[in-house]
Design a protein that fits this description.
Shape: rod-shaped
Radius of gyration: 43 Å
Strand content: 15-25%
Number of helices: 7
Largest sheet: 6 strands, mixed
C-alpha cells in the first residue's frame, strides 16, 4: 500500500519544543508547556502548527489544562527589540516563527492533538468529547450578533482573537489516510474535515463581511429595480396626464379601480372649487326661496288680521 503524502519536508518539523509561559525558551518557567512537535513551513499554504501527541496517560482534565497553557503561551507578549515602547509589544511566538500565508498572519497558530492510544471507538469518542468540553473556553471564541434583518434573520460572527484553534484526529486515521484527507475534527464543530477546512473559520468576521457584501449587492439590485419601476410609473403617469381646462395645471389620472377622474376633466383644485361654488349657490337659492315663502306667509297672515280687525 502506497504511503499517503505528509506535511512538508522533514526540515519543517521540530520536536520537543519548549513554549515558555514564563521564563525563556532556554529556561522555561513554571506553567510552561512543551510541544511534542512544531510544523513551520512559511512558504506553504499551511500555518505554523503545534502538535500534541496524546498516548492516554494523562486524564482529560490534565490535557485540557495543557491546552490552556498553549493559549497562555500564545498570548504572552514582550517588548519589540528588547525595549519597551508604547504600543510596541509583540507576541513572543512571533519573535521565533512566522505564520505562512497572509490569511493566517492575524490568527493564533492552531494546536493539533493526535490521540494514539488503542481503545474502542466509543471510549475514544468519549475521551475526545470530554477534552473538548473541559477546554471550551480556550478555543471557542466569542459570538457577536451584528444585526437583525428585515426578514427576521440574524447574523454575526465569532471573534477568535486570543483563543487557540484546536483540531484533533486519531493515529489510525492519520496512518491510513495521511494528514490531507478529511480525518480532522475541529473543536466546536461536527464531523470530519480536511486539514485546510478544519483550520478555516467560516463563521469569523471575514466570512461575515463577505455575506454582508453579498447582502448589500442584493439590496442594491433591489433598490435599482424599484427605482426603475418608479421612473417607469412616472413616465406612464406623465403620458396619461392632461392639462386642466380651467387653470392649466397638469392632471394625473386616478389609480383606483373606479377611474373616477375622467380624462380631460378639471384638476382636483378646480373641481373642488366648482363643487364648493355649486354648493354655495344651492344654499343661496334655498335661502332665497325660504325668504320668499316667509314673505308670502307674512302677507297672508297680515290679510287675515286685517279682515278680523274690520269685522269688529
Amino acid at each position: 500500500m502506497e504511503r499517503p503524502p505528509g506535511l512538508g519536508p522533514l526540515a519543517a518539523w521540530s520536536t520537543e519544543v519548549p513554549l515558555p509561559v514564563t521564563g525563556s525558551f532556554a529556561a522555561p518557567g513554571r506553567g510552561s508547556v512543551r510541544a511534542d512537535m512544531v510544523f513551520t513551513a512559511p512558504h506553504t499554504a499551511l500555518p505554523l502548527l503545534f502538535v500534541e501527541v496524546d498516548n492516554g496517560t494523562e486524564s482529560p482534565p490534565i490535557l485540557a489544562e495543557k491546552i490552556a497553557r498553549y493559549r497562555r503561551f500564545l498570548a504572552r507578549s514582550v517588548p519589540q527589540n528588547g525595549r519597551a515602547t508604547v504600543g510596541g509589544d509583540v507576541e513572543l511566538w512571533r519573535t521565533v516563527w512566522t505564520t505562512g500565508t497572509p490569511k493566517y498572519r492575524e490568527a493564533q497558530p492552531p494546536l493539533a492533538i493526535v490521540f494514539t492510544q488503542k481503545m474502542s471507538l466509543a471510549a475514544m469518542e468519549t475521551r475526545i468529547r470530554e477534552v473538548e468540553r473541559l477546554s471550551a473556553q480556550e478555543w471557542e471564541g466569542r459570538w457577536h450578533t451584528a444585526g437583525t434583518y428585515s426578514d427576521g434573520t440574524r447574523d454575526g460572527y465569532r471573534d477568535y482573537t486570543g483563543v487557540v484553534p484546536v483540531i484533533v484526529t486519531v493515529l489510525d486515521l492519520l496512518e491510513e489516510h495521511g494528514p490531507h484527507r478529511p480525518i480532522w475534527r475541529r473543536y466546536g464543530r461536527q464531523g470530519h474535515e480536511t486539514l485546510t477546512d478544519a483550520l478555516a473559520n467560516p463563521d469569523d468576521y471575514h466570512a461575515y463581511s463577505v455575506r454582508e457584501d453579498q447582502r448589500r449587492a442584493v439590496d442594491e439590485v433591489e433598490r435599482r429595480r424599484e427605482e426603475r419601476e418608479h421612473l417607469e410609473e412616472r413616465r406612464r403617469r406623465d403620458t396619461a396626464a392632461w392639462r386642466c381646462r380651467e387653470c392649466g395645471r397638469k392632471v394625473y389620472p386616478d389609480d383606483d379601480a373606479q377611474g373616477t377622474k375622467a380624462a380631460g376633466g378639471p384638476c382636483d383644485i378646480c373641481r373642488h372649487r366648482a363643487d364648493r361654488d355649486a354648493e354655495q349657490a344651492r344654499e343661496r337659492r334655498e335661502g332665497q326661496a325660504a325668504g320668499e315663502a316667509d314673505a308670502r306667509l307674512d302677507g297672508s297672515l297680515g290679510w287675515i288680521r286685517a279682515l278680523r280687525s274690520g269685522g269688529r
